[in-house]
Amino acid sequence: MTHTARRIGRSLAFVLPVVLVLSGTLAVARVPWATSTAESQVLTASSDTASAQAKSRAPQDVLREKLLVELQEKDPGIALTHLQREVEERPSLTQHCMSIARALGRAAVDIYGPTRAQSFSRPVCDTAFAYGVSQQTAGR
């Protein structure tokens, strides 16, 4: 008797979790209350109507936006100084330094005009700021 009971217990211990998982999965896979008709709707993991997950932004994009705001609120000189510090602290940003400095130069022309924007020019990222100023002035 003890041996038979033990054997039944082992079988149940193996089969019962499998049955519970499968029945739970099937129970949530079909939801009849999701549609107005009596038909069931099968849920899918990826749906066209699902809201898109927020994409993580690259560090250089975050830095560019931060410096552009700083340029507008303060002045391009402060933004260029902070760009230089960020590049020194995080060498992975070095490859993006010129494009960020050019973007700052173009934004400075929009805010301060070409002559005043050029006065903020510094040798940060191989004078890319000055190149951005000249690009914006030339209308590119």
Assess the beta-strand content as a share of residues: under 5%
Broad shape: rod-shaped
Can you count the beta strands?
2
Largest sheet: 2 strands, antiparallel
Strand order of the largest sheet: 1-2
Structural class: mainly alpha
Please report the distance between the alpha carbons of the first and last residues.
Answer: 91 Å
The Rg value, from CA coordinates, equals: 31 Å
Indicate the low-confidence ranges by residue numbers. Answer: none
Order of helices and strands: HEEHHHHH
Mean pLDDT: 79
Count every helix, treating DSSP H or I runs of 4 or more residues as helices: 6
Quaternary structure classification:
single chain
What does this protein structure show overall?
It is a single chain. By secondary structure, the chain is mostly helical. The protein has six helices and two strands, in the order αββααααα. It has helices spanning 2-29, 59-73, 76-89, 97-112, 114-119, 128-138, and strands at residues 30-31, 41-42. Strands 1-2 form a two-stranded antiparallel sheet. The protein is rod-shaped and about 100 Å long. It starts with a helix and ends with a helix. The model has no long low-confidence stretch (mean pLDDT 79).
